[in-house]
Amino acid sequence: MTVAVTGSMAFDYIMSFPDEFAKHILPDQIQRLSVSFLVDSMRRERGGTAGNIAYNLALLDQPALLMATVGQDAPEYIAGLQARGVDVSGVLQLSDEFTASFFVSTDQTNNQIALFYTGAMAKAGRISFANQDYQKIKLAIISPNDPWAMVKYAQECHDLRIPYIYDPSQQIPRLEAEDLVRGIEGAQILMLNDYEYEMIKNKTGLSEAGIKARVETLIVTQGEKGSFIHSEGHDIHIPVAKPNRIADPTGVGDAYRAGLIAGIMRGYPWEVAGRLGSVTAVYVLEQHGTQRHTYNRQLVANRYRDHFGHTDELDDFVSFSPESI
Predict the structure, then answer these.
(1) Under a CB-based contact definition with an 8 Å cutoff, are residues 296 and 262 in contact?
(2) Is 254 in the active site?
(3) What is the pTM of this model?
């Protein structure tokens, strides 16, 4: 049994401007802005929500089917995930497109100027669950992607009886209120951060009680405050694991999702699955780049014990064979 991971695959172009943007923008000329900034460093990182989640699942030996669109510039990205053990048969490569790309420049005061090019992601609707070996899919996650594709995937999961995690996050502003409500109502799990949670309540008009009544499990991440899981009438607080250092928070949420999903797939209690997510998230926080870190199940279990103490599920977590999933 496998996890189907839908969402974006993208390249992140991260640049550093050794000054302050504000010094070079004329407020009285803002209506005809024309300015160029010379950056002194740039990194090209592999990213995107689906790519990040699948990468982390592979580190945990959790079989994952990646369903995403990429362009002509992504063969090495695909090969890298495949080498890690990700099933990339659901990836659609478009020879006449470039992979979605995020361009961001940060100045010395942490102000940012960013652009996002959708590229191949805009055609994610060409992928269908019906064209996959969907009977082997135990759980799917619908993470940020082309909005129409997200609506399509939620409907397909409903029709094919595939339980899914609904994770609309960055696409909440683009999705229609009725589509958000349908996505929530069909989901087994709704997952958001605390700001997105307020956004979705505001856009749909649903109260907290209204959302909880429509979905079996609600998970809200709260940054350094940890996360809370509401399931079957119970609220469970999940604390964070403490990092050894803080490098870059980008991609932390994707790693949390992977750790949590690995726990769900093993049938662990929410308290354990959530803490696995907290531990896997820390590895990303300590590195620059969303797919430069590495770990294995033994390392995650050791760190879990260091932060939260022992639980019997860790013995299973370390010893299980991926073929048994």
Answers:
(1) no
(2) yes
(3) 0.93
